[in-house]
Every structure is written in structure tokens, then in C-alpha cells.
Amino acid sequence: MDRPRKKAKKPKAGGARGQWTSKAEFILVVAGNVVSLGNVWRFPYLCYKNGGGAFLIPYCLLAVVFGIPLFLLETSLGQFTQEGFITCWRKVCPLAQGIGYAQLMVKLASFTYIMVQVWALFYLVFSFRSELPWATCGNAWNTDNCRDVWDFDAANQTANETRILDPTSAATQFWERRLLGLSGGVEELGSVRSELALCLLLCWLFCFFSIRKGVRSMGKVAYLTAIFPFVLLVFLFARAATLPGASDGIKQYLIPQLGRLANIEVWTEAGSEILSSYSLTSGILIVLGSYNPYNNNCYKDAFWICALTSGTSFVAGFIVFSILGFLAQVYSVSIDAVAESGPGLVFIAFPQAAALMPLPQFWSICFFLMLILLAADTHFVCVEAVITSVSDLFPKLLRSPVKHEIISFLLCVSSFLVHLILATQGGNYIFQLIDYYGVTRFCDNFMAICECLAVGWIFGVDRLVLIIDDMTGHKPSIFFKLCWKIFIPAFSGVCFLLYLVYYKPLQLDRYVYPGWVPGLGWFMLMSPVILVPLWIIGHVSLTAGPFRQVGADNVIIFIEDMMGQVPSTFCKQCWKFISPLLSLQKHTRGEDGVYQVHFYTEVKGDEKQERELLVEVQLADEKMNTKKKSGNVVGLGNVWRFPYLCYRYGGGAFLIPYCLLAVVFGIPLFLLETSLGQFTQEGFVTCWRKVCPLAQGIGYAYLILKLYGFCYILVQVWALFYLVFSFKSQLPWANCNNGWNTARLLP
């Protein structure tokens, strides 16, 4: 039975940090972040590749035992600590603060994903042309052997099973020769493409104006960027479902291949999709949760948001495979010939399909506008998470509205200048390099292990359960404890090791990267990971006193009166071993029923400093009231990854491991991260100060990965490029009459 309780005060924070002006804004921002391109270009393919409908079994199972618990953990930690993903660990497990720094590195790397917006914006502009330039071969960039989209003569193809991504197709040539201006390799960067640079500038300007006022402006922008993509998704679903051949594509998407469930790779793919689509272990959920009021019901948020994210991915699969079925029927090829994931799906296959539909400009505009909004939402939330976490590291120096605008402007300008390298002729090679090594499931699984070890074993799941109970009035069951302590770290550990076992050097279509690239890639891959142990070593070395005093910023959250029981000697010794030497000085209860916990930390010798606990926990005499709140969330990754993975790993059978891992892997980890941000109210670097300072390197590792991820703005550039051409009366990728097409290949 829920205990009635008074409204608890939120944790104190240095400086004016701000909060969401409404619950709706929090829901929309989180939804806009997690519902990303992956829902469109990854999930449907994963489902198709990994057993079709059978993939939903591991996906749903992992969503329950992995995604939801981790989502709850992260949002509750952020909400409780009111800190970013670095400083939140100071209140939970100081030794784990390196996690925050590792997350900071990852977030900085992921800034590169703004290129998805850039590409989409490029396509959007061209979509307004009377003739879509990717539909024809009469353009300056086409080669002599270019084939336009209306070349249906399958007799001359001799069962060619790679037609859709054939370099002679008008759509492929528009992508490679017109938009990218692709050079010979990563060592030939060439010149900056002015059109892409302009699109990049516009995307960063939009990002700046979205975050210049912090959560106040970000929440308002989310009404457009989070809601409108769903409207466009409905339009695209209605159109795709009525296309010829759509039923054949849907069958391939959903037909279960139960035999695929015996493949461990299907389960790891489902787990990776949960991590990616739920935005787990990135630190973003911690930051977004940190702007929630103390009594926000993050418990219910975890369930509703995770359910919406997975549901959006599933629906996106119908759209993707309806269109792929249409293409397969038009060109008389199998689904295998057109099933694709990533940029190849959204910037080649989809534009080609749009060119074949009635009103091609309209559908092209709808599609690329949806891509831009999905990518933009994910991107500006990522940038704001970095700014929040860095500001929380230095609250007195950086935490003010004016300084937030200055930091936002400087970060956007510097990122724009850095990302100009991605707008060069060889920029796509760098983008793929960062995507493959800088932002990977390798780091995601490592962060999941670290977070669960820090919270589940060091801070203690019982403490976290009490925190969530006090904030929401709902006490997580033993199921969540088992997920946080055992299943999530165990499953993530297996995925972490399998990544090393199945590792293959990066290869981009027909291009093989130089020999020095794998070395650079492993440096990028290991930089965030190594920050976590480095932080622990550095913290231990620099902290005065014996090893048991490590973690000077750790705090005693719940005392005997709050827990209802005396902590065991074992718990106390573990606490002292990992934390600084803390001595409980006093705890008082005010007239309003709020317990104010005070403690002092031994600094050097007998000199002691009294430090007030940053969290004031409200307890009533017997019971607590419950505030019932709910929310939902969705992102780009669900759209363009899942369909291909589903196709690749057994069609419908892929849904079995996907759903299973969503339950036991994705949802718990999603919950962990959002609750962490909500608890600490810090970014993905500083949040670790309140949880585990030694893990703060995780935040900086995230930061590096996020910097690598900046290159993904090229996806926006490409989409914008296609969108512009979509307004042509004839889609330029549909025929070979464009200047960029090669000469028509005669039979």
C-alpha cells in the first residue's frame, strides 16, 4: 500500500539550475531523444535479419528485464541527485565518477550524428524541385552508365540481386556523387562542399536556438520536433500500406524463423537495439531526469516511455518493409536485394521508392522532414546534456542563464568548425569511422556494467529502492533488484566480450580503409573505457589517508530513521571502504517533516569539515502519497536500423531475442540511466560525482564518444539535400537524365 507523504523538497544545487516547466515537456524531450533514426533504419532490418517475428521474443524480454530497469535507474538517480551524469556519482558512488567522464567523451563523439540532419536537409531542399534529381540520369553528376528509377527492364539484369544499391542507379549516384562528392578514400579529404557546409551551419543554428535557454527553450521546441514526426509517420504508414507489394514486404518482416533464436548474435543484437533505442548508458537520461521535480513519478515514466519507443520501432518496420516490398515488386527482385540498414536505406532506397510513387515530391518532403526532426531532437538533447554536465562540474563558474547561452554558443560554433571536415569530399569516410569506432555497443555495454556495479553493488539496490519509493510512492520489486545486480551486468558482459570475439575491421562497401585506421579506431574505442579505471586509480592515489577513505564526496543518503532498520556492519564497512571516512554528525527533523541529514568528512588529520547533504528527504509518519504520472518517448535509430537487423537475423524470429532482451536488458538499462540523471540533476560527467567519483571517467569517455558522434550531422545534411530535390517535378534519383549520371549502359 502506498504511504501518504508530504511533498518533498528537491535537492539543493549550486546556482539556478532550472526545471521542466511541465511534465509534458519532459515527456516530449525524452520521446524526441529516444525516438530517433534508429527506429526507422535499424530496428525493422534487425527484426527481418534476426528471425522476423521471432525477434520480438528476445526484444520484448530484454525490454522488460534490461531496458525498463536501467531506464528507471538512470532517471531516478538524476531526479534524486539533481545533478548531471558526472556529478551525480558524487552522491552515490564517488569511485564511479569516471563513468560520467567516459559518458562525456561518448556524447562529444556522437555530435557527429548531426550530419544525418545535414544530409536530410540537403535532400529536403532538392525535394522541392519539379523533377527529383535522384530519379533521373540527365544531371551533371551522373555517369554514362546511369540507370534512372523507371528502368524496369529486369531481363537485362540477369537476376542482379544488388540493383537498388548498384552504383549505376540514379539514386546511388545522387548520394555518392552529388551530395557527398565522394573522394577516393579517407586520405583524400578534398575540399569542403559549400552546400553541405551551409546545411551544417543551419543545423547548428537550429541546435543553438533550441538549447540557448536550457530546458526552458528545449521543452518548447520539443512540441514541434517530437510531435510532428509522429504525424508524418502516420502519413507515411498510410501511404506505404497501400503500395503494391507491401504485403509481401510485411510478410518477410514478420514471418517468424524460430531457429534463429539459437544464435547468440540474435540476442546480442536485440540487446544492442534496446541500449540504442532507449538511449541507455549515454548519460542523457540522467541529465533529463535531473530537471524533474523530486516527486516526479519516474517509475511510471520508465514503463510508458519504453513501451512507446518499442511500439514506434515496430510500426516503423511496417513502413520500411512495405516500401521495400514495393521496390522488390517493381524491379522483380527479392527482398534481400533491397533490404538495407542505415544511410543506404534512408538516402538511397527510400528516395528511389518515393520517386516511383504518385506525388513524389510530397512524399519525399514528408520523409526527409521527418528525418530532420528526428535527428534534430536527438542532437540538441545530446548537446544540452554535455553542457549541463560540464556546468554541474563548475556550478559557481558556469551555472547561470547568461553563461549557459555563452557556453551553448561557443560549443555550437566550435563544433560547426570541427565538423566542416565531415562536409568535405572525404567526410563520409570519417563519419563512418567515428560511427564504427567512436559510438559503439562496445562502450554502451561497458557503461551498463559500470553503472550496475556502482549502483547495484556499491551504492546498494536497497538504497535505490528506498529513493524511488520516497520520490514516487512506488517501491520497485525484487525483480528490479535482480536486474540491476545480476542480469544487466551479466548480459552486458557477454555482449562486451562477444564484440571483441566477432570484431571485424571497418570496410565501407567496396572501399577498404588503410592499415592505420584500425589502430586509430581502437584508440577511439578504448578512450572512454579506460577513463573509468583511470579515474579510480587517480582518485585512490590523490585521496589523502588510507584506501578506505577513498570517495570524499560520497554521502549517507538514508539513515536509520528513514530506512526503518539499522544498516548492517557489513554495509557500513563496505561504505567506508569505497567512500571517504564519513561520520554521521546529526540528523534533524523540521516541523514540515523533512529530515535534514548532516555529516562531516575527514580532510586531513583531525580537521573536519561539515557538509550538508545535498538531498533533503521528506518522510511522513506512516505512509506516502503517490503522484501518478506517465510519459512516452521515441528516436531516429529505431527507424532505420531495426528493419534491416530484423531481416538480416531471421525475419520475424528476430523479434523473439529482441523482445526478450528489451525486457531483461534494454528497459532496465534505460530506467537506470534516466533515473540517474533525474536523481543527480547533473550531466553525464558530473552526475558520477554524486554516485561514484571514481567512475567519473565514464562521463569523459561519453564526452569523447559524443564528440565523435558529431559527425552524424552529415545524415541531416544528406537528408536535407534529398529533401530539397524531392520538390522537383521528377525526382532526380529516379532516372539517369541528370548531369551527374553516367552514360546509359546499353545491352
Please describe the structure with a list of short key phrases separated by commas or semicolons.
about 750 residues, alpha/beta, two-stranded parallel ribbon, 2 domains, 4-stranded antiparallel beta sheet, 14 strands, single chain
Question: What secondary-structure arrangement, pairings included, does this model have?
Answer:
Layout: H1 23-34, E1 35-36, H2 38-41, H3 43-49, H4 56-65, H5 67-81, E2 82-85, E3 89-90, H6 99-109, H7 116-126, E4 136-143, H8 170-179, H9 194-211, H10 215-225, H11 228-241, H12 246-254, H13 264-277, H14 284-290, H15 298-330, H16 335-338, H17 343-356, H18 360-393, H19 395-398, H20 401-419, H21 427-438, H22 441-472, H23 478-501, E5 507-508, E6 511-512, H24 517-542, H25 560-563, H26 569-578, E7 582-589, E8 594-604, E9 607-612, E10 617-618, E11 635-637, E12 640-641, H27 642-648, H28 655-680, E13 681-683, H29 688-691, H30 697-708, H31 715-726, E14 735-742
Parallel strand pairs: 1-11, 2-13, 4-14
Antiparallel strand pairs: 5-6, 7-8, 8-9, 8-10
Helix pairs in contact: 1-10, 1-15, 1-18, 3-15, 3-27, 4-13, 4-28, 5-14, 5-15, 5-22, 5-28, 6-18, 6-22, 6-24, 6-30, 7-9, 7-18, 7-31, 8-17, 9-18, 9-20, 9-31, 10-18, 11-15, 11-18, 12-15, 13-23, 13-28, 14-28, 15-17, 15-28, 17-18, 17-31, 18-20, 18-31, 21-24, 21-30, 22-23, 22-24, 23-28, ...
